[in-house]
Fold this sequence. Notes:
- The chain is 34% helix and 8% strand.
- The chain is of the alpha+beta class.
- The strands form 6 sheets. The protein has a 4-stranded mixed β-sheet. The protein has a 3-stranded antiparallel β-sheet with strand order 2-1-4. A two-stranded antiparallel ribbon has the order 3-13.
- The longest helix is centred in the first third of the chain and has 26 residues.
- It is globular.
- The chain starts with 11 loop residues before the first helix and ends in an 8-residue tail after the last helix.
Amino acid sequence: MMRKRFIYLTVFTSLLLLGACGDFLNLEPLDRVSKEYLLDTPAGVKTLMATLYNRLPMEDFVFRPSGGFNQHPGGGGAGDGGWSLASNSDEAIIYGPSGYTSSPTSGLAGHWDYTSIRYINQFLVDIDNLKADGRIDGVLHKQLYGEAHFILANIYYAMVKRYGGVPIITEPQALPESDVSEVMVPRSTEKATYDFVMSEFDLAIANLPDERPSDGSLRATKWVALAHKSRAALHAASVAKFWDKAPLTGQAVDEKLVGGMTLADANNYYQQCIDASEQIIANTSFSLYKPDPANKEEAAKNYQDMFESPSYQNPEIIFMKSYIDGSSASGQGHVTDFWFYPKQACYHTMYMSSRWGTTLDIVDVFEDYTDDGTGSSAPIITRTDNENTYIPDPKGLTNDQLAAIPFVHYDTQYEPFVDKDVRLQASVLLPGSVFKGILINMQGGLIRPNGKPEIYTDAEVVGPDSKTYYTYGSNNISGYSAFGALGTAQANYSSTGFALRKFLQDTKTVTNLGMYGSTQGWIDIRLAEIYLNYAEAVLESGYGDAGLAETYLNAIRKRAAHTDDIPLTIENVLKERRVELIFENHRYWDLIRRRDTHIIFGGQARRHSLVPIIDLRQNPPKYVFLRVNNYYDEGVRGFTFQPRAYYMSIPGVSSNQLVQNPEY
């Protein structure tokens, strides 16, 4: 591929700073170590590639939605201070030190990363020169060349899915002689930018090795690049097909810097997704992890283990990021357990933690084990009439209103979830779950013997059995994990009645009780996602093999102990993406790429909570469950998305003279 020369600057001062830095290789934090040394020695290559990979925009445990990628140490994690991309969707609600996410785009940082692009372009020039001088051989050059294009493809993909078309730069920037306008480069169209991403992945695929290095380095391979191309091509195809579900107007639209793609463009990207996915699926070294469990209990354990103890021994994992040590001093661990253990199991005394609340909305999506061949979701049963009624403010519920609700009564908090898809119990801490040997109590209210409700407010009541009952199931603030002190600085509890389980070290012990004590790896991409990418691309385009797509869809479900086969429909594939990939940072982008965010969150939507309540009107007391609007969503009158937010604002337009995105 011929490399064009483009020069670009976001603002003139940033270019001056970059120009003063010299070669990227001299930025390595080794005192003036030459690039020849770095590329001539195994240790040097490993150090250099670690620096390059640190530029990879991976939404992992050290991705902070409000701060960007690699926010670590001291300012990141899968929610440092209570952040996760799950809370920018309908998967979770988090009220933490960083604030409450009041809309899908609330608090999201952009990723305008021309610094990394300059570094990688300079690196490509340098390795070409070193090869020409005989300093590195062709084998090493080919691998480094492939890795650089793999990282570059991911950087541009991270930008195009946020901004639409961006300036494409394929050589190192240079300072202008005098006139800054000489180095201005306009935005490419959205289609041209996606095409560039695909071509960069193709360069990576053609040059990367089939296997990881023999020294055990966890670096990209041909298969990793194919998997990321599958993901990016599906995103591009969806935008091409659905962008006009939320039509925008303005210069950026007229010039096709955003939108403007055709169905033919969509089908081209779907075909690229299918082709990349088929190559991975055909590689017999990849397979689903433990695809044939003997029973539901085994299936639940297998799924939980995959995330608590991920490794490349697992044939499902295509690419992952490892973390080591776990000590605060080295900063090589992450903060997931520190922030997201439930209150009852929290192992530190720092305030403002344990605030992850999985929504009732996602819990209701999971199937049960009826397995009637439909794949239908099975909402939690709380009443005898319907499950479509939500109480806006349960604190204001009157005796008469409560008396009119036809509750279903349960003996335990866990009973309503007994027959739900095991991926739910392996991903979500449910009322009555056991975590670290502790029975997780999510109670949020009680009903006095006289019928008066006490919800979200402290009360102590003697029941008909002469026992004392408390609103939250305990009179100890560390004896419950939900609904305590809502809206205050002491609200270190779930606000939904559910918490996080996926990723947490449950059966393992956190290696260090400091903030960075988590060492479980982040699975960046795995075979189940490729199966689902393939199935969606086949359905949306009509290309590929529908029979195989249906087989892959059902293989994922059977790994979760389902016994039936469900039909290949877009509804079933999208539902399966939600339950199989829950909390893996897909849901936000799935809604964005298919242009569904404004439909779900366009009109002051509320996400929902489930409040377990002990009913003292009968003897012995039993539990009932109240469907309510989430406290925080209700407080801001809805979780709302504006269509312009499908694209972020282009930074620095007053200096770089780029066309701004619509409505900014």
